[in-house]
Amino acid sequence: MINAPRVALFCDTFHEINGAANVLRRLVAFARERHFPLLCVRSGRQTRFRKDGSLHIFEFERSKFSVPIDGELKYDPFFWRFGKSLGEKLAEFKPDVIHLTGLNDISQLGFYFAHFRAVPAVASWHTNTHEYAAQRLVGACRWLPRRWQKTIDRTVRRMVMRGLMKLYFLAQVQLAPNTELVAQIQKMTRRPSFLMTRGVDTEFLSPCKRRRRDSTFTIGYVGRLRPEKNVRLFAEVEKALENASVTDYKFVLVGAGGEENWLKNNLRNAELPGVLRGEELAEAYAAMDLFVFPSETDAFGNVVLEAMAAGVPAIVMPTGGPKFLIEHDVNGFVASGRADFLEKIVGIARRPQRLAALREPARAAACERSWEKVFESVYDKYHLSTIIEKNVRV
């Protein structure tokens, strides 16, 4: 790409441990390697500006009044105090396009600058915020009758989604990680919407890093241990295994979150090593026999793709983005519902040898997903947003 656009990337999350932050870190690395001019706006330990080759990095320290959202990720209600200094850097950088990555404090300021300075904008969808909000509220209201919980869930999802789309409408181009979301966002915003998938590092994650020698059936999970990930379903999985007289099994649940203590107290045969990084994480993936992902709210499910890269077949729920990664009974399994999810895990645990035929196809499917192709497509959409904005002005 000879004339790469000058991009101002507003990262609502960057240093935290989550799928969105992983994508944004890789996008910044892609720009650095290609020597593309990019201004990265993100949170940090202190407020500072620095340059790194073609990168312009503006980090802001969130205030002590920031509200925790998820783990280390926070929302700073006073973030707008940085508006003047950020506005000066934007004027100096002269972006051709602003890339917005969510609805947290940083992207809110990005939407403001894009709109009032008439800079073309691209908004990428990383998290099903409407579903997360509903899941957490319902989780806090478990004492209510089931029908009331369902009403709350539907109402919150609908209201939050409508609010999100009013803001996303301000961007000329929308990007989403699965085809269902692309269609939904395009319908609600009436803006051009495109697929922005995810890649995976198939050198770092590989079946050759398997170190286990025992035959214990190992059910694995990697991700946040939060209500919206539906991790309490693992207790039902264990009960189903025991009812089926499956005894030689264990869970390895990698991650941290508010549900960790509940899982420790309600699972009898589980290892919870916390957050793993580097080779420890790669080896943990490779040591799994079946990757079990009970979430029904993930827009993509990076960890499912990572497990596949390690040669581990995955089973996922019928809702959300992970189902688009799986070719059923070829490289993994897509359950038809909660009961089928449990039945399939029990069936596999009884006959784990059937997984052998799925390992290579799982790995092959992951190898087809290149981060380079993902970000080349994103840069194409940057160009498109500038064309759309010029046409609107004309």
Key phrases:
six-stranded parallel β-sheet; 2 domains; Rossmann fold; eight-stranded mixed β-sheet; alpha/beta; 394 residues
Number of helices, counting only DSSP H or I runs of 4 residues or more: 13
By CATH, the topology of the largest domain is Rossmann fold
Would you identify the CATH architecture of the largest domain? 3-Layer(aba) Sandwich
Shape summary: globular
Q: Spell out the CATH superfamily of the largest domain.
A: Glycogen Phosphorylase B
CATH class of the largest domain: Alpha Beta
In this structure, how is the largest beta sheet organized?
Answer: 8 strands, mixed
Can you tell me the number of structural domains? 2
The whole-angstrom Rg is 22 Å
Contiguous uncertain segments of 5+ residues:
none
Strand order of the largest sheet: 3-4-2-1-7-8-9-10
Number of strands: 16
Provide structural commentary:
There is one protein chain. This protein is α/β, with parallel strands linked by helices. The chain has 13 helices and 16 strands. The protein has helices spanning 19-34, 83-93, 105-116, 129-139, 146-168, 179-189, 233-243, 260-266, 278-286, 302-309, 338-350, 356-367, 371-393; strands at residues 7-10, 38-43, 48-52, 55-60, 67-70, 73-75, 97-100, 121-124, 173-176, 193-195, 217-222, 249-254, 270-274, 290-293, 314-316, 332-334. An 8-stranded mixed β-sheet has the order 3-4-2-1-7-8-9-10, with helices on both faces. Strand 12, helix 8 and strand 13 (270-274) form a beta-alpha-beta unit. Helix 4 (129-139) runs antiparallel to helix 5, helix 7 (233-243) crosses helix 11 (338-350) and helix 10 crosses helix 12 (356-367).
